[in-house]
Amino acid sequence: MNLTATEPSVSNAGNNAGAPGSQEHQDLRASVRVKELSERDRRRMLMHFLALADSDRLLRFGSALPDELITKYVQKIDFARDTLFGVYDNALKLIAVGHLGFSSRDALPMHADVTNKERVAEFGVSVSSSARNMGIGTKLFERAATHCRNADVDTLYMHCLSSNQTMMRIARKAGMEIERSHGEADAYLKLLPASATSVMREAVDEQVAQLDYTLKANTRAAVRWLGNFPGFK
Ligand SMILES: CC(C)(COP(=O)(O)OP(=O)(O)OC[C@H]1O[C@@H](n2cnc3c(N)ncnc32)[C@H](O)[C@@H]1OP(=O)(O)O)[C@@H](O)C(=O)NCCC(=O)NCCS
């Protein structure tokens, strides 16, 4: 089964994803393509965030932000400073968004002793409820970690509620150090320096994701065009 094969397969993922560890499940995970987002994705990002339930908004943003504040958050995303990643379904709907925010180490005194590098990175992620448990959150995290390495950042930070078992699972799998206090958790990952392999991996992943996006866009356009002919549905 291909995650990106059809919109229904994504929305029915909970039923069709296959048992964890099964070949079907592994194939599904292997087919997740993470693409870097740009200014022109802002509207689709907004649609993705607005579709999150209050409980997911609480987990993602630390509070159940109303639509108005979500809109402000999306409007303020600075693509020149931060890096955004996304996963699209076949209808080119964004089903997941990862926000890798960069800030100066000095701007965050609590990070001052964890790195000698000038910048640190913080990662926030959300996956549409219909597309969960297919490895998308993990893939977004891995891509963000590789991007950090290649951007000379050696500390990746994540803040979430300690009750967020799914995110805790992703953090633990990645080898993150987790500090808990007052129901919240700060997770840190120390990253290796960039290597030829990490640079190549990121470049290849992005190329494949762009190709995947183009194929989906072309298929969608062709289907729409054929739909203009009598007899085609
Ligand atoms: C957290 C979130 C991004 C995970 O996305 P996802 O695509 O479902 O994650 P993945 O499929 O890559 O991995 C989920 C892992 O958690 C495990 N998991 C799922 N539910 C779990 C639970 N209740 N307890 C423990 N582990 C759980 C899965 O089995 C999987 O582990 P595996 O890869 O070893 O099988 C998604 O649930 C989400 O958007 N939640 C709301 C927003 C949020 O919490 N954001 C994080 C704050 S920054």
Structural class category: alpha+beta
Oligomer: single chain
What is the global morphology? globular
State Rg: 18 Å
State the low-pLDDT regions, or none.
Answer: 1-16
**Would you identify the CATH H-level superfamily?**
Gcn5-related N-acetyltransferase (GNAT)
* Strand proportion: 15-25%
* Main beta-sheet annotation: 7 strands, mixed
Question: Mean pLDDT, as a whole number?
Answer: 88
Present the secondary structure layout.
Elements: H1 7-11, H2 13-16, H3 23-30, E1 35-36, H4 42-50, H5 54-61, H6 67-76, E2 83-88, E3 94-104, E4 119-127, H7 136-150, E5 155-161, H8 165-173, E6 177-181, E7 184-190, H9 196-226
Parallel strand pairs: 4-5
Antiparallel strand pairs: 1-2, 2-3, 3-4, 5-7, 6-7
Helix pairs in contact: 4-6, 7-9
This protein binds coenzyme A.
Note down, in words, how this protein is organized.
The chain is globular. The chain has 233 residues and is an alpha+beta fold. It has nine helices and seven strands, in the order H-H-H-E-H-H-H-E-E-E-H-E-H-E-E-H. Helices cover 42% and strands 20% of the residues. It has one domain (32-197, 212-226): Gcn5-related N-acetyltransferase (GNAT) (Aminopeptidase), CATH 3.40.630. It has a seven-stranded mixed beta sheet, with helices on both faces. The two termini are 24 Å apart. Coenzyme A binds at residues 20, 56, 59-60, 124-127, 132-138, 158, 160, 164-167, 169-170, 173.
